[in-house]
């Protein structure tokens, strides 16, 4: 099982980034996918989730209206489009795949830094 995130980097406040997470080693279309973020010294926070078929989404209040989660089951990929980025969005962003029980996997993370 592997989840590989990409797309992080340095961006100015107000800018945009698109994160990608490519999955392998499991049946991607059976899993809820989500993004979480971690700031040093804090707990990892939920950012956004999308259902296995892509027809249901939910977001943390802090990113509603700015971030959009989507998925392409044909490409085994989940995305996080991040607009109007703020310095408070600076974190390591992690991709998660969950189908309940022990079927819960994490990627290695990608750094997002929002700074002028």
SSE arrangement:
Blueprint: E1 2-6, E2 9-11, E3 17-24, E4 32-38, E5 45-50, E6 57-59, E7 67-72, E8 77-82, E9 91-100, E10 103-106, E11 110-114
Parallel strand pairs: 2-11
Antiparallel strand pairs: 1-3, 3-8, 4-5, 4-9, 5-6, 7-8, 9-10, 9-11
Q: What oligomeric assembly is this protein in?
A: single chain
Spans of at least 5 consecutive residues with low confidence: none
Morphology call: globular
Question: Helical percent range?
Answer: under 10%
Largest pleated sheet: 7 strands, mixed
Note the gap between the termini.
37 Å
Strand content: over 45%
Number of strands: 11
Computed over alpha carbons, the radius of gyration is 13 Å
SS class: mainly beta
Order of helices and strands: EEEEEEEEEEE
Average pLDDT across residues?
Answer: 97
Helix count equals 0
Gist of the model:
By secondary structure, the chain is mainly β.
Structure explained in plain terms:
This protein has 116 residues and is mainly β. It is built from no helices and eleven strands. It has strands at residues 2-6, 9-11, 17-24, 32-38, 45-50, 57-59, 67-72, 77-82, 91-100, 103-106, 110-114. The relative contact order is 0.32. The mean pLDDT is 97.
Question: Key features?
Answer:
116 residues; 4-stranded antiparallel sheet; 54% strand; 7-stranded mixed sheet; mainly beta; 0% helix; globular
